[in-house]
Structures are given as C-alpha cells and as structure tokens.
Design brief:
Helix content: 25-40%
Number of helices: 3
Number of strands: 5
Shape: globular
Order of helices and strands: EHEEEHEH
Strand content: 35-45%
Distance between the termini: 33 Å
Radius of gyration: 14 Å
C-alpha cells in the first residue's frame, strides 16, 4: 500500500446534499478498493485561478489515503466518471502527520 493525496474540485452547481453524497460515495469506493482514508478535509468553496468547464469557483477537498498501486488507475477512472467533479489530481506522497503552517493558513482563508 502506498500513500496518495487526492484533491478534487466539485462543481459549485452541486447542492450541499449532492456534495455530501459524492463525498460519501468516494469514501465508500476507497473502502471497496481495500484502501484506507488517513485524513479528509472539508469541502471548502474556493475561487479558481482559472475557469474549469466555464466555472469560476468550486468546492475543493483533499484526502490522504493508502491504496494498492495497482488500483490507482481504476480509482482515477472512477473519479472522472463522477458528474459533479470538475478536476482531480492524485499524487503519490509520503504520509504527513500535520500540514505545514502556511498550507493550513491558506486553507482557512
């Protein structure tokens, strides 16, 4: 199992209920793939640096998970099929005990 950081942007048109359902489905899908969620941030509304699919804002959420490397591409494909997700990134990262102070401050803003 490797550690991965997954960041995704949810469409601002998605209702709060739809966002919660998407987040729950994502967490369930990680468990079905025999992965483990180490940390999950709240989905925070952010102004985007550039438009994505004509959207100027979105809800940004980051997860730190452990997942078998052979299943990462299947997980990426599953993420791309979700209707409300505008953009995703999956990074192979070492596990972090805590966020750097400047990163935490940016997330609060």
């Amino acid at each position: 199992m490797n550690s991965y950081e997954i960041t995704y942007v949810i469409s601002p048109k998605a209702t709060e209920e739809a966002r919660e359902q998407l987040n729950a489905e994502l967490e369930k899908h990680v468990a079905e793939m025999e992965g483990k969620i180490e940390h999950a941030s709240a989905a925070l509304r952010r102004q985007l640096a550039y438009p994505i699919l004509d959207e100027q804002a979105g809800f940004l959420r980051t997860l730190q998970i452990e997942l078998n490397p052979a299943k990462v591409e299947d997980f990426r494909t599953w993420l791309k099929k979700q209707d409300h997700i505008l953009r995703t990134t999956i990074l192979n990262t070492p596990y972090r005990e805590e966020l750097a102070a400047d990163t935490a401050k940016q997330l609060e803003e």
